[in-house]
Amino acid sequence: MANYYDILGVSRDASEEVIRGRFRALARDAHPDRFLDAAKKSEAETRFQVLTEAVNVLTNAQRRKAHDFDIDKGGGGAAFDPAGIAKVYLAKGVKAYREGDLATAFQQFDLSVGHWGKDAKALHYLALVCSRISGKARRGVEAVEAALKLDPENGAVHREASRLYLQVGLRTKAERHLQEALSRIPEDGDVQKLAAELRPPSDNKGFLGGLFGRKG
Q1: pTM of the entire structure?
Q2: pLDDT above 60: residue 213
Q3: Distance between CA atoms of 24 and 210, rounded to whole angstroms?
Q4: Which end of the chain is more exposed for a tag (fewer CB within 10 A), N or C?
Q5: In the predicted model, what is the mean pLDDT of the chain?
Q6: Cβ distance 119 to 113 under 8 Å?
């Protein structure tokens, strides 16, 4: 049977407010009107129907109680494992990202983080995909800041922090994280591109030279 908690990416003790908030966030991305391609539109319609059914069940006390009973009966009373479920969503997100399906990747990474917000890798991937989807930069900033708390020495995470801060207009923070990225992964092509964006070509030599000079 379908587990509506898994579908919405919430825990079994989630409040109605949290459930409705998750539904709104997921429904925006899954709404059929966003798609022109017939196949994608049909897929989105199915996804939207499932999301709607999930929120209708979990925000109705009697239907939610019955759903919980069915889950426990079908799963032998197994405990809810948010970390395990998060890994499944993460794997699906990575697959979609590698295939170039950014919308699906975002949904899967967001679900992963929604289940278990202590995985730096999932948070990094969410930030990564957010930096590549219009309108998702602020969500990406939230994700990358959480990732940095868990993995502050990761140059790739600092790179995405720099990219996202630049997208939301926080240039000083973008430069600070670019410096951190350059100190850890100086040969990374995306880091070099960010350096070119943050400093005009005439200033890049001095900017990069100063950064590397401080490390030597």
Answers
A1: 0.61
A2: no
A3: 46
A4: C
A5: 85
A6: yes
Distance separating alpha carbons of residues 73 and 91, to the nearest angstrom: 27
d(C-alpha 44, C-alpha 23), whole Å: 14
Contact 143, 126 (CB under 8 A): yes
3-state secondary structure 23-80: HHHHHHHHCHHHCCCHHHHHHHHHHHHHHHHHHHHHCCHHHHHHHHHHHHHHCCCCCC
Check pLDDT > 80 for residue 205.
no
| Closest to 175 (Cα-Cα) out of 194, 193, 156 | 194
Q: What's the rounded Cα separation, in Å, for the pair 142 and 118? A: 13
DSSP code, position 133: S
Q: What is the mean pLDDT of residues 98-107?
A: 92
Cβ-based neighbour number of residue 175 at 10 Å: 18
